[in-house]
Design brief:
The complex is a heterodimer of chains A (133) and B (231). With 133 residues, chain A is mainly α. Chain A is 78% helix and 0% strand. Chain A is elongated, with a radius of gyration of 18 Å. With 231 residues, chain B is an all-alpha fold. The chains are: A mainly alpha (133), B mainly alpha (231).
Chain lengths: 133, 231
């Protein structure tokens, strides 16, 4: 009985810390605006929306990998899947959850778009170096 | 002899620890987060000692039992100190860091006293029993302190990204560890649950390394973004 209670409580706190951790990750990219290059490539107009995430990730995979971004992108991808699950599973019972999940997914898309911007910039830099050589 | 999976987890854990220390040195944050680094160094040594004793004496030997529980006790104390070091950073701006340290010492002494009182009756193997009891009690105190620290981070609207992510990593680690402990008790017959705790042990240095590498000390975030469900 006690073990079941501890398990339930720890799962709840784990979920709370996971969401907060992911929000702190996506929040860290909010100060950076999406670059012009990324807007051109992805078709994002003013603000990234949740549905842009998949497209941004597809383009991201075409760019050379940056180890600094890797772990953060994996965590945000897990968060995005979690939000989708939440949306599909509970949005009918709690309608306000849908709007919240959509806002969070937009945060994930913005995070990925900022990472894509960094990769495009790095790509350009590498290309310029090769031209110089 | 450890199984292949256990050995693989051990190697990942060691690599994660070394990775965090390397990131910490590269980003010049070794001394800024000294107690976090100290905990990881200790955990690397503890893992090495356990592995050596395990190889030469076996998992059922008395020596392995001593090595495991004594290093575990040492690690729990180091983790407690790491939590306190983060708490003093959070409260530093309110000039309360001194009081945080005082409370920490009192808590540590209180927990040690309580643990001693619990095991004082059994005079044989007193030191071992004390190490186990202190480790368990201090772990629980550390868990509660981490939750309180997270509450303080939200209340004080802490904006330092690195600090916030390090506290969150600790919260995730403590929650997951407590969950795995409960799961081991609920479903001991499933072999897979025994690997949960060592896997979780790898998580802490990895997430700290991500924080150190991704964000500079000056990076700030919007406090309103931290609450799981916005108010």
């Amino acid at each position: 009985m006690m073990a079941a209670f501890i398990l339930a409580f720890s799962l709840l706190t784990l979920l709370m810390f996971f969401v907060s951790y992911c929000r702190s990750l996506t929040a860290s990219s909010l100060h950076t605006s999406i670059s012009e290059d990324v807007r051109d490539v992805t078709g994002i107009q003013v603000r990234a929306a949740g549905r842009d995430y998949a497209r941004v990730m597809q383009i991201l995979q075409l760019c050379p990998d940056q180890p600094k971004d890797r772990a953060g992108l994996h965590i945000v991808a897990a968060y995005y899947s979690f939000l989708n699950l939440l949306d599909q599973g509970f949005a009918k019972i709690f309608p306000s959850l849908k709007a919240w999940a959509e806002e969070e997914r937009a945060g994930c898309a913005h995070f990925a778009a900022v990472a894509l911007g960094r990769r495009i910039a790095l790509n350009r830099e590498m290309l310029a170096q090769q031209v110089d050589l | 002899m450890p199984s292949g999976i256990a050995l693989a987890i051990w190697i990942v854990g060691m690599a994660a620890g070394v990775g965090f220390l390397t990131c910490s040195i590269l980003r010049a944050s070794f001394l800024k987060y000294f107690f976090l680094n100290f905990y990881v160094i200790l955990s690397l040594f503890a893992d090495l000692i356990r592995q050596v004793v395990l190889r030469f004496r076996g998992v059922d030997s008395l020596e392995y039992g001593y090595a495991y529980y004594y290093t575990d006790c040492l690690l729990t104390v180091a983790l407690f100190v790491a939590v306190i070091s983060l708490a003093s950073r959070v409260f530093a701006e309110l000039h309360l860091a001194r009081y945080v340290r005082l409370v920490a010492v009192l808590l540590l002494l209180g927990t040690a006293g309580f643990s001693y009182a619990v095991v004082a009756q059994s005079t044989d193997r007193l030191a071992t029993m004390f190490a186990v009891e202190l480790s368990q009690n201090l772990y629980f105190v550390g868990l509660v302190l981490t939750y309180l620290l997270w509450g303080a981070v939200l209340k004080l609207q802490e904006t330092r990204t690195r600090l916030v992510q390090m506290v969150l990593s600790l919260g995730l680690y403590f929650s997951a560890y407590a969950g795995s402990y409960a799961l081991v008790n609920l479903a001991p017959k499933y072999g897979v649950v025994q690997y949960l705790a060592p896997i979780l042990g790898c998580f802490l240095p990895i997430s700290w390394a991500v924080s150190v590498m991704r964000h500079s000390e000056d990076a700030r975030l919007t406090p309103a973004r931290l609450v799981a469900v916005p108010r």
